[in-house]
Structure formats: C-alpha cells, structure tokens
Amino acid sequence: MKYIGNAFSLGMLRGDATITVKEVTIDEAKVFIAGAQSVIGHQSTADYVSLLTGIPIQANRVALVLNSGDQLLVLQLLGRLPEGVILTQDDIAKVSSKWYLVTVG
Fold first, then answer.
1. Domain range spanning residue 19?
2. In sequence order, which ranges of 12-95 are alpha helices (DSSP H)?
3. pLDDT tens-digit readout, 45-96
4. Which of 16, 48, 49, 102 is the most exposed place for a label (fewest CB within 10 A)?
5. pTM for this structure?
6. Residue 62 Cα distances to 42, 54, 80, 95, 103, angstroms
7. Is residue 31 classed as helix, strand or coil in its secondary structure?
8. Closest to 75 (Cα-Cα) out of 30, 35, 17
9. Is residue 21 part of a domain?
10. How far is CA 34 from the centre of its chain?
11. CATH number for the domain including 6?
C-alpha cells in the first residue's frame, strides 16, 4: 500500500523489517500522492500538504502498521514543535520541512 503522512516511527513496523528512506522532491511527492491513503492525523496539517502540492488531502487519524512492500511518503517538519499545541497552517508554514519516502522490505 501507499500512504502519505507527516511522521514515521519504528512502532509502525510489524516484526523484523528492512527500511529504506530516500529524500524526494515535491514533484516526486506529487506523483506518489496519486493513489496514496492519507494517515495525516490533523486537518491543519492535511490542509497544508494540500496547499503545498495542489492535491486535496483529508486528515485520517489512524494507527498505521506497515508491512513488507508498503511505502510511506512523509512530510517531515524539521523544527521542534511546542508540546500539546495543534498548529495552524500559518504556524506549519514557518517550520522548515522535507519530503521522505520510507519503503519497507
């Protein structure tokens, strides 16, 4: 399966796994998003991803388990965020970010 999210955790893996992580461009991210299921937990973040990519993304707060062959596109916010605060789109836009593609083998 293909997923788009804003975080990756080792807790998402089931059993032993080999993962690869590759930084991708926004253009590569846009291609990947077609057919990917959102696992972005907050609507403000989903709205921001939509704004960046021009592709409508809905929030979908689920516990993700990745299996062999699954891929997760991650918009990784690079700053340390305040504890317990739900960020607005303007707040998110002030934090630098990168796109990563996580592939489970």
1. 1-66+98-105
2. 26-33, 43-53, 89-93
3. 898 899 889 999 999 999 999 999 999 999 998 876 667 777 677 776 777 8
4. 16
5. 0.86
6. 11, 23, 23, 24, 19
7. helix
8. 30
9. yes
10. 14
11. 3.40.50.11170
